[in-house]
């Protein structure tokens, strides 16, 4: 299986999608790997606890643009925290996952955000707060509003999901992808604007000449 | 995990527990999840029907496979598919249907069509004979192959049996004298017979900590008390104090992880025969070593021990194993120590597989990406269980350096594939190794790895790395410890 996935892909050909690194962060067994598995392979099954880090890739087709996610699925246990910190370096996006039936996992997600802010510059990464396991509605400990409020106060994207029932899983990744490509575009725009004075200063003279004729 | 392989090795792996295991395994409904059963059933059904038609046509009954083959060849020849109509109707209307394709070759054409010419009939006859001969040849070849595999297996079992006699009668009674002799070490490399595996592991790991079964009972009862008080108070404390929440989380996590330990074996899950044992050992350990506590990955180590040892012995081996310097460094997530192990590993990586080493370097792919999972679970999560046990065998013989040697062996085994991959694909590949990895191939690759860096051995390289790093960053803060 892994062999098939790992089909050699020598050097990126021109016109290949932009690659974005996305890290999954959150407490143990909140469903990080399940979200990844559901999204990448549309599968849900009992998953072995992640030790260290697991990896997935997925190409996202946004219609206008196409991008590729490199998903870093980190170990959730607190003890691995120091190791996981290494893995969010260079990340373009992060999903802070918590389990809506466990308040402590919601608190942990907030802590992860702090760590993330220490390591990466704000605005550099697209961060989304994800409340997973909506299929366990009757055991809910964190309300939708709580999640939303926190996300809004920190300027994060927010969504609730169920990896088990395949509820809004793809939407989460697509929203992040859209945000990434939007930011990329605006960055491109900025760059053009920064370059603009040069072209502008030349253009009038050219135009002027044009008009003179 | 390759379910298929696991079943095959079940008998060899857990000799003591065969009875219990057998019942579990056989009744396990989940095996179907892994084996591709349904298509095969279908194939058998259709071929049976075809076979029937043959015998009724007074054609020598052939093996079903041959018929399928003939059909395929016929299809290829005529360029049209001869799909049998749905099975049920076929069975019912059997007598009214045109004769089978083979019959078309053998018999004249149906009466409403012009008759075959003599040459054509002859040619058909000849072609048919050729096909049959070919198919027969193929079948004989396959039978030979099967026989060879069986022979190999017998041979293997025989050598295991004879090795077992040697281990029981000669080596174990004189353990201290014989354990490091050349002969024993060689026999050890071949893999321990499952019936003495647990015993040898226990002896090799030792009991530096002097844990007795009584002590285990004490810690177990402490763990049980804690679970009780935890379940009584869990409703009261919510967000109070992180340490309480953490301890809770750890207890919760043990419960969760137990059900996620070797799920394909169906023995550690709730209601499975070893669920409670695994829970007990992990719980007792967190009471015995609160400084280490429960760390994900431990459940796999404990599970492998449980499969080979009695409960108390498994605990003793577990605690002592985790007390080895390398394991302690990893399970305490002592980051700076882990880095030293990785640095030592890289010295041997470069020495043994320089091309791949450079390839990894070019992507700044560091060993932690794959080694963390391998070392934390002692390969029991990443390799098929029977193969992991063989790695454990030699790990017990050679110590920590064998864990890293195994890692290099895996890299060597897949060197050609890995050289073609980029960062993410290498990471993906190594954290989820192919399931068809065989012990012969892996062990020959491991054997080819030299753990002697020009003049230095693993331990020497390790201590020099320790010294370098100590001098390099004296004012660095100590490792993040949880």
Question: Any key phrases for this structure?
Answer:
heterodimer, A: 213 residues, alpha/beta, Rossmann fold, 6-stranded mixed beta sheet, 6 strands, disordered N terminus, disordered C terminus, B: 482 residues, mainly alpha, two-stranded antiparallel ribbon, 26 helices, 70% helix, TBC1 domain family member 12 isoform X6 (chain B), Rab_GAP_TBC_domain (chain B), coiled coil (chain B), Rab-GAP-TBC_dom (chain B)
Please describe what this structure looks like.
Chain A: It comes from Bos indicus x Bos taurus. Chain A: Keywords: Cell projection, Endosome, GTP-binding, Hydrolase, Lipoprotein, Magnesium, Membrane, Metal-binding, Nucleotide-binding, Phosphoprotein, Prenylation, Protein transport, Transport. Chain A: Belongs to the small GTPase superfamily. Rab family. The complex is a heterodimer of chains A (213) and B (482). Chain A has helices at 2-5, 32-41, 81-87, 103-119, 144-154, 169-212, and strands at 18-26, 53-61, 66-74, 93-99, 126-132, 157-160. Chain A has 213 residues and is α/β, with parallel strands linked by helices. Chain A has a 6-stranded mixed sheet, with helices on both faces. Chain A is globular and about 50 Å long. Chain A starts with a helix and ends with a helix. Mean pLDDT of chain A is 82; it is low at 1-13 and 197-213. Chain B has a two-stranded antiparallel ribbon with strand order 1-2. In chain B, α21 (385-398) packs across α22. In chain B, a hairpin with a 2-residue loop joins β1 (452-453) and β2 (456-457). Chain B is globular and about 90 Å long. The two termini of chain B are 31 Å apart. Chain B is an all-alpha fold and 482 residues long. Classes of the chains: A alpha/beta (213), B mainly alpha (482). Chains A and B meet through α1, β2, α3 and α4 of A and α13, α20 and α24 of B.
